[in-house]
Amino acid sequence: MDKIKELLERGVEKVIVKKHLEEALRRRKKLRIKHGLDATGPKIHIGRAVSLRKLREFQELGHKIVLIIGDFTAQIGDASDKQAMRKPLSLEEIKENMKDYINQIGKVLDISKVELHHNSEWLGKLKAQDLLKLSMNFTAQQMIQRRNFKERWDKGKNIGLHELDYPLLQGYDSVAIKADVEVGGFDQLFNLIAGRKIQKIYGQKQQDILTTQMLEGLDGRKMSTSWGNIITIVDEPDDMYGKLMSMSDNLIIKYFVLCTDVSLDRIRDMDNSLKNKKVNPRDLKAELAKEIVTIYHSREEALKAEKEFNRIFKKKEKPDKIREFKVIKKPFNVLDLLLESKLTKSKSEARRLVEQGGVKIDGEILKDWRNKINVKDKMVIRAGKRRFLRIRLK
């Protein structure tokens, strides 16, 4: 009973229909639990993993997890949280993104017990007549009234007709695999309800729905591959640990609830300690970072990452391992060097970083981005808080 209560409440935003689902769980009826992942990026972030972790709870109670890799729907892209039309992905891009998905999902779920599908199996066979049958049960008003579509409409931004088809296709997935329950983020609620409606059209029992709370990324917005504010479940331990230590204090408790297995009683104690200023938020972030690195790597790697982080930020020392970049000995423009060495993603980012005093060469702050650098062998460049590079001359 405690496991069922936690499954239905921890990190959960909404359940439809809660009483029905709770009764099915208590009867120990084996349910088919559906979850879809569009291959819009090559790495799964810990925001997406919130739903995967909820699936694991169902799996541990003996239910069948049915995972759908959206190789067909990824060509459209879910518009649930998008303020502009997405750039369409080619089949080649989707296949490239999908390469490591199963290994990544295996960090959370027991893949040997998962039923796996790609929705091109059935969506690729849909006829125009089938799509018309689905479309006749929805109105343009229903689609346009979705929050992000309404905002785009009011601002005069384009809404593609193909974007309106996405909920219908995701809903048809539920028909294809005869889902009893669908799990997804709260931003997916419209699509999940569409699945219930489409199951009814096809004479199936309507799936129950469980939506998880949304996880904010490092910039405070919803964690999203499109925005790049992510921590992926395959980030290197040092990088994962460092990103978690950089997050806002007001997200600590939410991350503990959604991203870890720490008991809710312990989390409540942490929350009270934070509110009453009985604990340093940094100490709780360090505990959180260790927990999450342990989940996706190991306890040993988590302790190493903690030691490395403290070496750099407490003791102000250089990291044990620094990436090397080979160059020919010549004067380099600062922005060119930062971009070519991949310390920054663009010259504008490099310029901004220098202007903010965020670039150091052998410990000295670089003050002018217009300067040229005479590179030296074993010179160490630091960009921002966590990016280091050692120059090696060819």
3D structure, described in words:
- This protein has 394 residues and is of the alpha/beta class.
- The protein has three domains: 2-212, Rossmann fold (3-Layer(aba) Sandwich), CATH 3.40.50.620; 237-313, Tyrosyl-Transfer RNA Synthetase (Orthogonal Bundle), CATH 1.10.240; 324-393, Structural Genomics Hypothetical 15.5 Kd Protein In mrcA-pckA Intergenic Region, Chain A.
- 44% of the residues lie in helices and 15% in strands.
- It has helices at residues 2-9, 18-26, 49-60, 91-98, 101-105, 120-123, 128-135, 140-144, 147-154, 161-177, 189-201, 237-245, 252-259, 264-275, 281-296, 299-313, 334-340, 347-355; strands at residues 12-16, 32-38, 64-70, 114-118, 181-185, 208-212, 324-327, 331-333, 359-361, 364-365, 372-374, 380-383, 387-393.
- The strands form three sheets. A six-stranded mixed β-sheet has the order 1-6-5-2-3-4, with helices on both faces. The chain has a five-stranded mixed β-sheet with strand order 7-13-12-9-10.
- β9 (359-361) and β10 form a beta hairpin.
- It starts with a helix and ends with a strand.
- The model has no long low-confidence stretch (mean pLDDT 86).
Write the layout of secondary structure elements.
Elements: H1 2-9, E1 12-16, H2 18-26, E2 32-38, H3 49-60, E3 64-70, H4 91-98, H5 101-105, E4 114-118, H6 120-123, H7 128-135, H8 140-144, H9 147-154, H10 161-177, E5 181-185, H11 189-201, E6 208-212, H12 237-245, H13 252-259, H14 264-275, H15 281-296, H16 299-313, E7 324-327, E8 331-333, H17 334-340, H18 347-355, E9 359-361, E10 364-365, E11 372-374, E12 380-383, E13 387-393
Parallel strand pairs: 2-3, 2-5, 3-4, 5-6, 7-13
Antiparallel strand pairs: 1-6, 8-11, 9-10, 9-12, 12-13
